[in-house]
Amino acid sequence: MSYAIMLREPGGPDQLRWERVEVPRPGRNEVRVRHTAIGVNFHDTYVRSGLYKTLPLPGIPGLEAVGIVEEVGPGVGGLGVGDRIVYIDVGYGAYTQARILSAALALPIPSSISDEAGAAITLKGMTACMLLRHVHKVAPGQTILIHAAAGAMGQLLCCWAKHLGAMVIATVGSPEKAAVARACGADHVILYRDEPFPDRVREITKGRGVDVAYDSVGKDTFLGSLECLDYLGHLVNFGQASGPVAPLNVPLLAAKSITLTRPLLFHYIRGREALEHMAGETFDAVAAGVIRPEIGLNLPLAKAAEAHRALESRATTGSVVLTP
Fold first, then answer.
1. Which portions of the chain are predicted below pLDDT 50?
2. 215 with 257, same domain?
3. Of 92, 226, 236, 307, whose Cβ has the fewest other Cβ atoms within 10 Å?
4. How far is CA 150 from the centre of its chain?
5. Domain boundary among 223, 248, 265
6. Same domain, yes or no, for 93 and 209?
């Protein structure tokens, strides 16, 4: 037996219930994992609220965790009892003390990365890798816009983009968050509550606009992000913290031959080879000091509801981690 956070119906954070669950023996090509640290992501809040109807209910939410292999099922190769692993699972199930996991999802985690750091950076780091190296290959001399730059994802994007030679324009909501974005390499920081960010971007770029805008905010920033783009610019919408984007009038893109992408990490890591490659790029970036895990809040797993409240309030900087 184990304890887990169960979601039985969509709604607010109080729908996350601490319940006892049974963990069976692993089957063929499966392992039993005892979690040591669990990552919390905005995606989890969308699942809990019902905005994403991707978790069959009742179910255990959570996409990523670090843990120790406790038992190995038949047919599993390359993994043994006591191995330390990290995983991302599109099928959810991470908000629990222990679980059965497909061995194909388990990745060895470098010894230089702690359990909490692994839970804080694996999914977000791989997402940053996807956004900067695959969705739009950022090159030296490009100018880019990053929204929510003081959040966990925003910090990783700022650090990695600056390492790649881009000029980084960041938007944040407070002077305290502006300091965080600057520490991560942002060349210009816009307090979006104090001035319209499209006007400030035009001023910074002398009317040209940016090559790419990375927008995880959604409804409140989407049209403004379009305004900020240069000719042939690329808008990458990868989240909706302020709500879903309204249906798009496609001819708006024709004004500057703009491209729009709504990528999902899971589509870029569908096979084992792709998964290992993306994880390798990410862990290499951590080892080189290009990106670093920043944990803004660490709570017991039983307090997952409190973690969701903190994340949705946009009061946090850095990652949120749960400890079983």
1. none
2. yes
3. 92
4. 13
5. 265
6. no
- Cα 40 from Cα 215, distance rounded (Å): 19
Tell me the pLDDT tens digit for each residue of 185-211. 999 999 999 999 999 999 999 999 999
Shared domain for 130 and 232, answered yes or no, is yes
User: pTM (2 decimals)?
Assistant: 0.92
What gap in Å lies between CA 26 and CA 103, rounded to an integer? 10
Structure tokens at 136: 């739009």
For position 242, what pLDDT does the model report?
83
Which residues have C-beta within 8 Å of that of residue 287, sequence separation ≥ 6?
110, 112
Q: Are 58 and 6 in contact (CB under 8 A)?
A: yes
**Residue 215, domain extent:** 124-265
Q: What is the CATH number of the domain that holds 83?
A: 3.90.180.10
pLDDT in tens, 72-122: 999 999 999 999 999 999 999 999 999 999 999 999 999 999 999 999 999
Q: What is the CA radius of gyration of the chain?
A: 20
**Residue 118, in any domain of the structure:** no
> Does a structural domain hold residue 196?
yes
